[in-house]
Amino acid sequence: MPRILRILHRTEYNYDRPVFLHPHHLMLRPRDGHDLWVDDAFLTIRPKASLRWYFDTFGNSIAEATFTEPANRLVIESELVLRRYVTEFMSRQDGPHVCPYPFTYSKDEARDLFPYIGLENEHDAGTLDDWLNAHFTERPDGAFLFLRRLSHAIHRELGYSSRDEMGTQTAGETIARGEGTCRDFAFLFMEATRRFGFAARFVTGYLNDSVGGPDAPVGGGATHAWADVFVPGEGWVEFDPTNRITAGSALIRVATTRTPAQASPVSGSYDGTEASFLGLSVSVDVREVDSPD
User: Fold this and answer.
1) What is the 3-state secondary structure (H, E, C) of 196-226?
2) Hey, which of 145, 184, 220, 286 would disulfide with 169, CB 3.0 to 4.6 Å?
């Protein structure tokens, strides 16, 4: 049975005087799939905006908001009602389809996945290798379990910390600091898996932290980030090293990209002579409901 979720995501920008808002691009609506189905999606923007929808190079659904009047506050409210289905990978790890490690992508897979395989920051290769050799020593001969152990190693060896500033640390920076946010952990995991020849991509979305009690996952109340890895025979599999979640229904995907910088839920700019930016506030509320009505 699917979990039915209602998600409220509110973003507010404030300025000390009216500014002219350039077009803003909103990455807030998931695409339907066999594991996630959108029943309703509502978008409220103040001041009033005209919307143009399109798909980006990754197939994500993007809304471009265009404004005609100046304002000293921009509020974007997204409400989603969706069904999240679960794929139980762990119960399927004894069949003939199980992918070994090491493995080789097929010719077509390698060609299609090429942009997702190489390191984003080649200068981190040595740092990554040293860290992996020190902290990721148990390496199963099955690709799925191999990736799961790697995700757990990041969770175990590094400390989670929240950070309001935009941007994502490089893998080398996260290793050096010994801590990071969910997006830092996701990117480190991506770079590490790429070091072993896997194709990996960045995922932005939400975290259902309404269940679990004292063991509830961390990272709720805002957008969340994790990674997808392409496993032959299984396809794209989700790994969240922040919470040691593998393909769990607590992860609610909105968009996937090659790099973290391409996955901003809201991006845009403004003009305002002498205007000052006063601040940004973001809130996310995820709740399970009995029905989509």
Assistant:
1) CCCEEEEEEEEECCCCCHHHCCCCCCCCEEE
2) 184
